[in-house]
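Extended Data, panel c. Modelled sequence:
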Amino acid sequence: MASTPRGKKTTKKSPRLAPAPTDWRTDTLARLRAIITAADPAITEEAKWRKPGNAMRGVPVWSCNGMICTGETYKNAVKLTFARGASLPDPAGLFNASLDGNTRRAIDIREGDTINNKALTALVRAAIDLNNARKPPAAKPASKNAAVRNSSPRTSANKPATRPAPQPAPKPAKSTRPPMGTAATTATEYIASIDGWRRTLAESLRNNVRKTADLEEVIKWGHIDYFHNGPLLLIRVEEHRVLFGFWRGKQLVHIDPRLKPGGKYELATMDLREGDTVAPATIARLVSEAVRLNTSIGNPSSTVKPAPKRAPKPRQEPAASARGRTPRSATR
């Protein structure tokens, strides 16, 4: 049964990318391309940001009445970045990277990972629906000469006919359901805005974190963040999951392998679902080690590395002359 097109365009633009070496990343990107373009016949693809770093092949960008997502190839992963991913429903939990932003979300696919075709198709269609719901751009005002040419006949020698006032463009309907915790200004208000198993889990995580260390607790980037010599960890509640992440989490995987790397710096996050728990002893170990790392290494979000200290050069004694005579300074 043929699906009804969601977008407004009816033609596809075939990208002309330079050939890339064939490996698992090339095959993965090809499978992702097939799923994305099959989600709606109005989707177009083009190559942007051509540079030597990507062998001038550029980055594939998929659009439909606005950008949907991009596909980038890295050494250890293929990354799909959704331009407005933070506003998209993700019941299958596909997003596993760039979770700390207010706009974008990303999916990192590593070698051997299975692609959930059905969930990815639903995510692409939701992005198209979100693009179509945006307010259309305002029309440019007509030039002065065009206004004179198109004006209605004058009713008198000096006064032109009255024109009807332009009607404002209709505003798109806004969702009556605000994102979780967006109105909260404290962690207590954030927890109070949640219900059910997510509230129980988030409350348990917060209580055990606060028992372990005296940290700065703030609401930042739409969720609870803790700081100690820079960002340390986060607790973020979403519709179907609770995220428990550490900025130096890549160095904490040996404590709990559920920490999955993703995003900037050394961020790694646990994706906790209904029925999942984290033992208080595990939370204490994670927090204590994260505090130790931030204390010894520094702010994990800092990109400025201190210049290495140079060792002092050893002092050289003056050499004797070719005939073996002692230098004057040695005889004084």
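DSSP finds seven helices and eleven strands in the chain. This feature is highlighted in the accompanying rendering.
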